[in-house]
Amino acid sequence: MGLDRQSGKPEIAAQKRVIKLAPAIGDWTTYKPPKVLVKKIKTGLYGFDRLSREELDQALLLHYRFVQDLLRRFRIDLGMAVELFSVQVEQTTYLNFLRSLGGTQVQCKLKVSGLHEPIFLFMELSLANSVINFSLGSIDVAQINRALTEAEKITLETTLNEYLPAFSSAFSNTIEQVSLSVISSPDAIMDSTINPNSTLASFSAEAALADNPPGRIIIAYSGNTLKELLQRFRQAERSKELDFSRLPNALLSRIYCPASAELGETSLTTNDISRFEVGDVVSLDTTISTPVQLTVSQDLQIMCQAGIKNKKASIKLLGLKDTGEIELTPPELAPEKVEPKTTLLPPKPAAVKPAPAPAAIPKPAQHAPGPAPKPVAAPEPPPPAKPAVKPAPPPPAKPKSPEEAFPDIDFGDDLIDEDFEEEDDILLDEMPEDKFPEDDL
To answer: Using an 8 Å Cβ cutoff, are 98 and 188 in contact?
Structure first.
C-alpha cells in the first residue's frame, strides 16, 4: 500500500476522545485504567481544516447516537445479538490513520450530494460477514479471511443503504442523496485525491455482532468535510422550533431568556452629535404606525405595539417578523380628567338619641283550676328622674340713691319719698345744728 514510514519526518500525535461503556469496563470496582506512555512528539496538526475541541466533542455525540440507532435496527430487523463496548473520535493525518488500521477490513465509500470529498466507512471483515449472513436469513458458520465476492458486495451494499437515513437524521437531515458502495476488501487502499498530510477525523465504535468477538466500525472524514457537516447541523438546530412541551414546568420556570425591544433607529452626523443639549428631540426613521421589534435570545423576532400598563412601558405582541407587513393605527389620546368642584357644607347637627321605652310589665302566669293563687304585686315602676336643679341666679345689686348717683345735683323735699320722712326726721334730730344751717333745711 505504500504506507511505510518515511524517514526524516517527525511523528505527528493524534487527538482522541474515548468513551468506554459498561461492557468494556466490566467490574468497575476492580477496573484499573491502563498506563499511557507519553513521549515528546511534534503535533503538526495546524491549518484551517483542523477541528476544535468543541467540534470533536459534538462529532463524538452525533456518531454515538447514530451507532446506537444502527445496532438497535440490526437487532430488530436482522435478529442478531448486538453489544456496544466503546466509542472514540480521533483527529490525525490521513497517512497515520491508514497506518492505524489493522486486520482485514471492508472499505466503503459514501457519496453525499454537495460534498466534493468522500466519506469512508470501514468495517472489520468478521462484522461484515455477520451482516451479510443475517440479512439473508442465515447464521455465521465460519470466519472468512478472503475478499468478498460480487454477490456478497451487493448484499452488503443493499443492507447498509437501508440504514443511511439514520445517518442523515443524526445530522438533522442536512445530508441528502447519500449512496454507499464497497470499494475494497480485505485490505484498505489509499485515495489518491486526498493529501496524506491533511487532517482526517475518524469515529470508531467497538461492537460485537452475533457470536463474533468485538470489532470496529469506523467512519472517516477529511477535516473540511466534517467541519461543513457540523456547520450545517448547527444551522439546522438554530432554525428548529423550540419544543417546550418536553420540559417540566418546574424547569421552565427557572429558564430566563433576555428580551429587548427596539423603538427605532436613525443616523446622525458628528456635527449634530457635538451640538446635543439637554432637552433636544431626536427624530427616528420609523413612523408612529411602525411596529416595535422585540428580540428574544437573539433568535426570535416578534413585532409589537408600544403602550403603558400599570404605569410601566409595555408592548403588545402582534405577530412574527416573517408573517408580513403589520400596520398600526396611532393610539387614541386619553381624555383629560375634569376634577369635580367641591363645595363646603355646614356640619350636620348631632343626632339626638331617643329616650328608652319603659320596661313592659310581665303578665301573671295562668294556673290550673284549684285554690286561687296569691296575688303577686306588680313591680313598682322606676322613680322618675329628678330634674336637674339649676343654680339660683345671683341677687340683683342694690340700687344707689339719687344723692350717691348724682352728688353734684341738689335734690329738694319734693324728690324725697314719703316712706322715708320719719326716718329722715330721726336722723336730723340726732345731727347737731351747726352741721345743718336752717337755710339749707
So the answer is: yes
